[in-house]
Design brief:
Layout: H1 2-14, E1 22-26, H2 35-48, E2 53-57, H3 64-75, E3 82-86, H4 91-96, E4 100-103, H5 113-120, E5 125-128, H6 133-136, E6 143-146, H7 151-163, H8 165-182, H9 185-199
Parallel strand pairs: 1-2, 1-4, 2-3, 4-5, 5-6
Amino acid sequence: MAKRQYEYSVRKELGIDSGAKVIGLFGQPLPEKGHSYFIEAAAEVVKLFPGTRFLIVGYVYPSAYQRSLESLIKRLDLHQHVLFTGWRGDVPQVMAAVDVLVHARITPEPAALVLLEAMAMGKPVVCSATGGSPELVLDRVTGLLVPPQDSRAIADGIVYLLENPELAYQMGRNGRKRVEEAFALDRQIRRVCDVYTEVMGLR
């Protein structure tokens, strides 16, 4: 019930209709985060789902990159669809209001915690297959893996989940189960201890 209250509260604050589909990208606006591909994907998605809203969640500061993103939104006529929320101290509540999380990273990173956070909250993800992300997101089980720097593939992934809500819901459930079974804190502590024990020759 609390999750629903957070969802409605955030949507109301941001001026989003309770029935609208919301797609979120969480991360500070930096080129490697792939925001431009997310925005280009939004332009394709709204052709089929015109009521969809897209949130870019993260601290916004004056920069050439930020200005380029704003120009792209203007050029694609997405000002009514894409919203910069700025820095938020209530990220879990904002994530609760999202239907699909997109991770559009264009450069490798070992492990994107936002993916685990999204899956822990039962959110299906559309994720660039870079770095360690394919080890976290199981393709077509907990989300969809797409090629990096491919806005068309991101759009196709979002549309697929919007067109198949029951499947998207099941992916979210699978993601939560995966986090609980494979990435719970106590399990990670045991794994680290096992590594140290093996390295020190104590077993």
